[in-house]
Design a protein that fits this description.
With 243 residues, the chain is of the alpha+beta class. It has 2 domains: 114 residues, no CATH class; 78 residues. Belongs to the RNase H2 subunit B family. One of its GO terms (cellular component) is nucleoplasm. Pfam families: RNase_H2-Ydr279 (PF09468), Ydr279_N (PF17745). It is found in: Nucleus.
Length: 243
Amino acid sequence: IFLKAYKHKPDFFSTGEATLYLFNSGAQQLFEVKAFHEERRSWFIGQTVQQDGRLLFVTPMDPLFLILYYLIKADKEQGKFQPLDQVVLDPEYPSCPLLLKCADVKQYIQHVTEEKEIGSQKFHKYSQEKTLKWLKKKVNQTVKALKSNNISVGERVLASTFINSKQITDAQEDYVRYAHGLISEYIPEDLSKELLKYLGLPELRSPAPEPPLKKRKLSDVPVEPGEDYTKFNSDNLKTKKVS
């Protein structure tokens, strides 16, 4: 099923991108589907060859990340409290209301919204303050998972930011920064920057290029030839004919 979600690509920060997700039976759990693809790869299935050699990875995903897209959009357009079923709507992706059926969504929606209750109906409005607090917990959980699995992130942080290794000395900061990068793949760019500040991480900047080295001057004494080579230019020198 295709749903609209934020992905960390320049063209989709404000509009969202169509991405493949999977629901289990009853739409109680959401899964993200990622494809690992290499050229000239096929599968042998029984006595046949399947040309599509992609390897699909299916991983559980928190539906709040996808719901965030619609909450932020509604807040920018209307800026008022609304029922969730009026917010999570999209004519291009009619299956998106299934997100509200996922287990515990209505319980955990308070982590990213302000809530009002009138009679028996609840109304919600996007809260950036609550969202940043919730995202910080996600970052901390990611850091814990990285450490428990003995995953080194220092070199990955350097590679992704193209900075001098001398600028990073704190291993804990490396983990937090790397986890922030992973979480940022599912949120808009402006929210990612706010989260960076909320985590207390300075924005990394590439160092200014160093000026080219000047050629070293070895001596002030002019270099002169040790032998007069002009003598070889004499008109008197002639090639003798061998008889």
